[in-house]
Amino acid sequence: MNREATDHFFNPRNVGEADAPNFNGRAASLSCGAHVRFSIQVDEAQHVSQARFRAAGCDVLVASASVLTKQVTGITTAEAASPGQDPNGLIEQLGVEPANAQCVKLACTALLDAIRDYSNAARDDWAGDEALICTCFFVSERTIEREIQSRGLQTVAEVTAICNAGGGCGSCHQLIEEILATNDLPG
Amino acid sequence: MIYLDNNATTRVAPEVLEAMQPYLGQYFGNPSSAHTLGREMKHAVEEAREQVASLIGAREPSEIVFTSCGSESDNWAIRGVLATRSEKKHIVTTLVEHEAVRNLCRLLESDGYEVTWLGVDHNGELDLDELRAALRPDTALVSIMLANNETGVLFPINEIGRIVRESSDAVFHVDGVQAVGKIPIDLKNTAVDLFALSGHKLHAPQGIGALYIRPGVSLSPLIIGGAQEQGRRAGTSAVPNIVALGAACRLALADDGHDRIERLRNRLEDEILRRIPNARLNGTADRSKRLPNTSNISFEYVDGQNILLHLDQAGICVSTGSACHSTTHESSPTLRAMNVPYTAAQGSIRFSLGRYNTDEEIDTTLSVLPEIVAKLAEMSPYQEELARLR
Questions:
Q1: Does A37 contact B at CB distance below 8 Å?
Q2: In the CATH scheme, what is the homologous superfamily, with its name and number, of domain B256-389?
Q3: Are the beta carbons of A58 and B303 separated by less than 8 Å?
């Protein structure tokens, strides 16, 4: 770990729970017993307005979680989901040895889990005319269907490439799969 | 720096350093040489042998053979016995042995030996009936430690030796590395056949060990070469280290500081358990069954490595019971064998005191530790569980 990470370990930022209404995620490792939770609050413009964590695990896990709470505050849930999708940037940023890369990943996974908790709730609460599928990039069911039909899309990755849907926290992948299945008509 | 990690290694005592220093200077000869210098070296080695024999209550100095470390002594004892009893393929040992014994027995298992692994109860103690039941006509060796390196729990080797003698013709090896210099040992009045010890645990430098071999016990050599150590262990004698080990044994035998160490340990342990709500002792609460210098304490629901690093930043050296780094990601086999809950094993810290610790150092430790643990408890995701302990 580099100096920045060490400082976050000895002086962890944003410990605790975000103010209500908050959304929560967790991750645990069976192999080492580490356990980490994230708690986030998201404003109406889909920006993470508060991020808090709690952890019982090694110094790398604590440092990663603390750094993540700082980094995601003020950015959109779609942006906040990116270290969860690819933790390598954070691993490099903190100067973590390859042997401890999984500890960084565990923190990223818990954050992603919290964002998915938010996304699932936001989708359920959505009161617009069209069903909202991807809450990170704000993509409706109708848009996704239209793209699938007009371009003959077959996979979630293709849908994401065309309209961003599913490119954030990933909580809508199952829904996109279902839309793909419904539109997979012969001929 | 406050050093509370004396089970890992100890500082070389000034008296020991003084004793060995001439042998790093003007007395540089080979004790196997026939000239005057060589004979002087030989004399120093034999004096050290007597000092080691006295500390552990051997009948004769010739029962002591110098080795390079405790692990060599353990490896030699086990492999040396098995090599002379090739018809016997059964070993009895415990789940809480030091790696030098545990990993060797695992290896022997894959080489065709059958190993009975004795478990321990939640106090870290053996069930001697389990030992009785494990002994068989084809049991070649029983290897059981005297003091556990992590918890300090003592195994009753006198009684174990009697049981081994009564119920089998197995050779009885004891890993005594963690006990020597900390508690009185009198091997001549036991049925112990082989006994391993290591210098750096009792204020000699690293790189010197010894094996006690009861007369009549047949042991194949591990290191083949010259006729040093009565032909039992080849290799030019490490005279400075041997002299140092002798001096360390003399110091341990003469030292009246054991009661003081025990008093400091008791105060540290009592106060930690009293002041920190999520602290719990690992190993029997009966202190007569534990080393006088060791406290293994779990701080439940927080991470032991975190505590270690915070203590280190405050200049205090301790060990964790869990090894969550690089290659291994599991809690200590000793604590697992004791059925210590996972969330407690992850937060275990070993405090091991020594002759240079002071009351002030214990005060300092007690002044910083509760705050460190409280801060980590605040960060813990197990808030409900912690609330129940307050």
A1: yes
A2: Aspartate Aminotransferase, domain 1 (3.90.1150.10)
A3: yes
